[in-house]
Amino acid sequence: MRKLATWALAFIFILSFALPQSNASAASNMKLVVDGEVVEGIEQPFMSQGEVLIPIENLFTKAGYQVSKDKTGKLSVTNTYLSVDFDATAGSVTVDGKKTDTPFPLTLKNYGNYVSGTFLSKLEGFDLKVSDDKRTVSVTTNRVKDLDKFLKKMMNADLKSYSAKMTLDQKMESTDDPDVIGMLMDMEMDVTQEPVAIHMKQTVSTDFGGEKDEFTSESYMTEKEFYQYDGDRWIAYGNDFGLGADVGATLNPTAQFELAKMFLKGVHVFEYDDVYVMVQTITTEDLNEMLGEALSLIGSALGGLEISEEALTEDSVTEEAVVEEAVTESTEAEDATADETVLDEDIFSALGIEIEEMYFVTTIDKKTLFPQDMKGTTKISMTIDDVTVKIVQTLTGTMSNFNAVKAIVIPEDVKKEAISFEDYMKELEAELEKELQAAE
Fold first, then answer.
1. What pTM was computed for the model?
2. Superfamily for 24-142?
3. Which residues of 31-48 are buried (b: 16+ CB within 10 A; e: fewer)?
């Protein structure tokens, strides 16, 4: 009898874990829907003391925000315009740097962090509704729903010229070299669309394991001409290096969003009172797909390559051989379209590309649809022959002077001082030959 009682108590003990213990457990099968899409994952919303609790990471990731967690467990979500920090150590939540009266963490379930529906409803750009049967939580954000329509509208923005300032900070390290290679590039440029032209100034600072260097360059590019200052002299690259008549569209920053939409996954646009905020994210899988499409486009372009008679001269035997080889290779690539997927996989496998983070944010004026500023972070690694190279880049930029840039004209003194690209290459070859002779 005692043994039977023991088994009965054990059975009741086990059953107690299977049966609902509270409102939270009873509603554990709630599902989360963000902008009409069901969010999958172990962590799901549940009711606790009449309040709905929603998993933070699942919610904000689905909503297009950048979600990150530091070593202390601080959880941060942002689309740059709106930033929320959930700090369990401090027991608080801050919105755009201002502390709220919301305690945190509210609860931990399946090791996840949760936010209350009441708090979420107070955030700009979020609306929440719980179904009558308490089984579904629907969150509606301020994201633009018809992305194609929005991008087409941006494409038609009346942007004829602009100025831009950009800074790129890059750090690169390798598993077979203890030195970190750093590069900081500051760039200023003016761009006009009609006619298409660019005037650009660059300052590049490098740090190769403590050996620092800095150089500046300047360039003028028009539809038919390209002049560049390499720090010592101006070089005239000739008409073949001009921008071309059809490049204006690609220089238009608003047009670049259409390309971003074609090649990048995870594009979201948030609407606020006076601006739009566009965020773009990409994963390793997205990159593989993007590069595959790019290779396909390049293959198609090369497949249609035509060489004019003017481009072939009597003394360009080497050039003819290169062109012939390029055409042959492009034809072979075109014939191998059926095996394109295998080819791409081989390329990506050889490079061993892995993306830890790739996130870009652009603020867009709501009235004009002109880009105002941009920020981006890229953390990527490539592994080749057991050597892994890690690259971290941060990009910041501002755009201004819309439709107020004066016509870009190549100064006459630049044209007079410039040496031809052919002469420049001859000088480089002569210097290289001297160095080789000196080494011998």
1. 0.74
2. Copper amine oxidase-like, N-terminal domain (3.30.457.10)
3. ebbbbeeebeeebbbbbb
Which of 184, 191, 149, 158 shows the shortest CA–CA distance to 170? 184
Q: What is the pLDDT of residues 369-423, one digit of tens each?
A: 999 999 999 999 988 888 899 999 999 999 999 999 999 999 999 999 999 989 8
Here the tokens at position 170 are: 């890059």
Beta strand 419-420 pairing with 177-193: unpaired
End-to-end alpha carbon distance in the chain: 101
Give pLDDT tens digits for 207-262: 988 889 999 999 999 888 899 998 889 999 877 665 654 455 555 566 555 555 56
Do 204 and 184 contact (CB within 8 A), yes or no? yes
The CA distance from 47 to 312, in Å, is 76
Angle value at C-alpha 269, between 43 and 38, nearest 5 degrees: 30
Residue 248's nearest CA partner among 203, 193, 209 is: 193
The amino acid occupying position 277 is V
Of 121, 119, 122, 125, the closest CA to residue 106 belongs to: 119
H/E/C letters for each residue in the chain? CHHHHHHHHHHHHHHHHHCCCCHHHHCCCCEEEECCEEECCCCCCEEECCEEEEEHHHHHHHCCCEEEECCCCCEEEECCCCEEEEECCCCEEEECCEEEEEECCCCEECCEEEEEHHHHHHCCCEEEEECCCCCEEEEEECECCCHHHHHHHHHCCCCCEEEEEEEEEEEEEECCEEEEEEEEEEEEEEEEECCEEEEEEEEEEEEECCEEEEEEEEEEEECCCEEEECCCCEEECCHHHCCCCCCHHHHCHHHHHHHHHHHCCCEEEEECCCEEEEEEECCHHHHHHHHHHHHHHHHHHHHCCCCCHHHCCCCCHHHHHHHHHHHHHHHHHHHCHHHHHHHHHHHHHHHCCEEEEEEEEEEEECCCCCEEEEEEEEEEEEEECCEEEEEEEEEEEEEECCCCCCCCCCCHHHHHHCEEHHHHHHHHHHHHHHHHHHHC
Calculate the alpha carbon distances from 120 to 39, 75, 80, 102 in Å: 17, 15, 17, 11
